[in-house]
Amino acid sequence: MDFLRPQTWADALAAAADRPDVVPVQGGTDVMVEMNFDLHRPTALLDLNPITELTTWEENPDGSLRVGAGMPYVRIIAELGDRLPGIAQAARTVGSPQIRNRGTVGGNLGGASPAGDLHAPLLACGAIVEAESAARGTRMIPADQFYVGVKRHCLEPDELIRAFHVPPATGPQYFSKVGTRNAMVIAVCSFSLALFPAERRVGTGIGSAAPTPRRATAAEEFLAAELDWDGTLDDAVARRFGDLVREAASPIDDVRGTADYRRHALAVMARRTLAWSWRDHRNNGEAA
Prior knowledge:
Helix content is 35%, strand content 22%. It is built from ten helices and 13 strands. The strands form four sheets. Strands 4-5-10-6-7 form a five-stranded antiparallel β-sheet. A three-stranded parallel β-sheet has the order 1-3-2, with helices on one face. It has a three-stranded antiparallel β-sheet with strand order 11-12-13. The chain starts with a strand and ends in a 6-residue tail after the last helix.
């Protein structure tokens, strides 16, 4: 197995173009585990750690945030937790402190596992993935178009993930997941909700309950239309929202849980995150 260690982003793109079989690695929290269990033995690894620009973030001219694909979870929590609360909540649930020090959103996207913790809030927040190739330049991919199958994304073999773009929260955002214990566990299923009160808009993300992470678009449209944004939360609206989220999932039975349990849990998490979000919304956007 070859080990490639480019020192610049241009060199990394050139290496990916020359070796379409190469597997990019940054934190290694997924890639190295698969290698240790002999589940995947790539012919070449592309170590992106020397490229420091991947570990930075900046504010775009339109106010959105551009976060480098190699920025570890601990820094997202510490530096952007107030502006990206849904993503920060999900990041806090990833593995152990050691894994959160190494793991990155870019790695979560590259693995494209339906159970990846960051996919649901990226979908709910309307994130856009910035990918690039040496031959074709930059491509901006909405998160809800990024996932195309089980552990498959829409990137071409010579494309690398450079960053993700996401607007700062303008309303409450919450993430919830169910597992067999509180820490060091892969989600049985997960759900994320983002409210955009000024736009009267709702964002959702479902994890580990379909072949790919996905939005519950019918639930989003229903809630945006039926919420009394200046009043109280109607229990019937909350129940219907939960039902629509449950209907948006297409889970399977596996060792972590049954399909029926996942559907039930998603409906519960949808109602629960809506209640938390509505409490914050009525509290002028401040978390209680």
